[in-house]
Amino acid sequence: MRYQVSLAMLVLLTALTIPAWAISPDDKDSDQQALTALEARINQAPAKDQCFLYAELIHQMTEVSLRQYTAGDVPKANALLRQVQAIAHKLHLSVANNDKRLKNAEILLRRSAFRLSEMLHASDYDNRPLLEATLAQVNQADNEAMMQVFKK
Q1: Burial 85-100, CB ≥16 within 10 A → b, else e
Q2: Is residue 19 one of the residues assigned to a domain?
Q3: Neighbouring C-beta atoms of residue 12, cutoff 10 Å
Q4: CB-side exposure of 6: number of CA atoms within 13 Å?
Q5: How many domains does one find in the chain?
Q6: Domain membership of residue 118 as a residue range
């Protein structure tokens, strides 16, 4: 009997500590470092690779923003969404016929748009205009990338 109680306590303790460990402050730092590293990689990449890298950055920023909304850090999430809008505009300008991995970029943009629409449906009224504007920018970049894919 004593063995079962101690085993149950061990399982309960493990179940309660793993979620707290999974969302550590180090994750926020690693997310920001990954975004910064990807931005630096975009600046050094040739023009034909930039479209895909911009799409990857938009996707990662969308995921980080979603995690921040979930954690209740709305100002940081909104700041990231504004950055997503600016990067979507840059992506729209960088789409060209000779882009490598254009279809992969289009897929990432479609996934990002889906995640943004999920955020829009789960958000409160105050955050909707920013989310709608960001979703529109990402959808526009997605449509442009899709049109370039079909032109090939």
Answers
A1: bebbeebbebbeeebe
A2: no
A3: 10
A4: 3
A5: 1
A6: 25-151
Which residue in 35, 140, 31 sits closest to 91, CA to CA? 140
Q: What is the pLDDT along the chain (152 residues), one digit of tens a residue?
A: 555 545 455 454 455 444 444 444 445 667 888 888 888 898 888 878 888 889 999 999 999 999 998 888 889 999 999 999 999 888 877 776 556 688 888 899 999 999 999 998 888 888 899 999 999 999 998 888 888 878 76
Using CA atoms, how far apart are residues 85 and 137, in angstroms rounded to an integer? 6
Structural domain includes residue 6: no
Collapse the DSSP code of 138 into the 3-class scheme (helix H, G, I; strand E, B; otherwise coil) and give the result: helix
Residue 33 is assigned to a structural domain of this protein:
yes
Residue 16 included in any domain: no
